[in-house]
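sorry to bug you again but im stuck and you know this stuff better than me. what follows is a protein written twice so to speak, once as letters and once as structure tokens for the fold. id like you to explain what the token line says about the fold, in plain words if possible. anything you notice is useful, everything is just below.
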Amino acid sequence: MDKWEEQFLREIVELDTNSDEKKNYAVCAEVIKKYCQEAGLEVEVFDSMHDGTPQPNVVATLDTGAKKTVLLCTHYDVVPAGETDEWKRPPFELIIEKGKAFGRGVSDNKGNIVAAVSSAKELIKKGTSKVNYKILISPNEEVGGTWGIDYLMNGPPKIRGDFGIVVDSGPEYVSIGASGVIAGTMTVRGLQGHAGYPFKFANAIHLSIPLLQVMVDYEDVRRKVESKFPAPPGSPHRTLWGRFSMTVYNAGSKTNTIPGKAEISFDCRTIPEEDVEDVAKNIEDFFKKAKEETCVEASLEFKTKHAGWGTDTENKYVRLFHDTVKEVVNPEIPICGDLGGNDGHYFISHGIPTVCYGTLRDDNNYHGLDEFMHLEDFEKTKKVLIRFAEVCD
């Protein structure tokens, strides 16, 4: 990583662009715009402005006059840092140590933004690109992409291309699909009151326990759902599979008060072949039976329904990209699907063949404490994007 790349990454990592608060989006977009212009790219900014909050999408273009355009998909929003005092290094400072860059979002996905822009910068300098590169740098990926890539593809900008690369995956494989995400909350209702008189009230925590015991069985239901797309290296299954996890529990406010409400949020991962609406209906049916079995008063609300996707492995651009990665990185690198979700389905929905590649190695702690990126993975990603543009026609 050269000094220009390091400073670019430093300036955007220092900005807390977490997807909950959505602060610093406009500032971050301006910084990205500045570095894109320095790289020699043409830059447009499309602000989706949702609920009075700026959500600027930066579109940086390397226009070579070629007939084919490749879309590079990246994002600058990050998940919240959580309890920052639990980090060994400040989450919103770029710390480089022993071949690693530390900071929230450095791998997911700000390092990939810099890699994409830097690859275009190098291609401009060399004059060797055989395609146009259009780098889409958006917010909202961590919460569904509606005001990010979805807005660019389906809103007024109506961005189009011949091939898509989601620069938001790992370097150990070329991904040709991603899981869908369904998130929601189950709310258990009781009756709030004084903890000294528990017999007079209905404790929502106590009521939720038998319901949760039944809902845990839905993990087994989802585990039996199998995809045709290979799972990433190191997975416990040969192909992608369905998953269900209860991830957040909220109840109570004081030790001397019987809680009248308990909220349990969940995350369900679908395989590329599934329709998220069908899976959501299946969750609703299982939840209804769980309520009937336990006689618990509860409701279910979905927060996110984000479709999975898969692409044709025989597509010429997919094969060429895989060949490029094997040439630049490792001839043994496989093709498989991603366990996580990403914005690639917005490309696929418009018939644009798509792959994923990037710096998100399994050990990076993205979404966790002390997130980091291997600098060698940054270089690999950049070199792959450069080489692909040179051989793609």
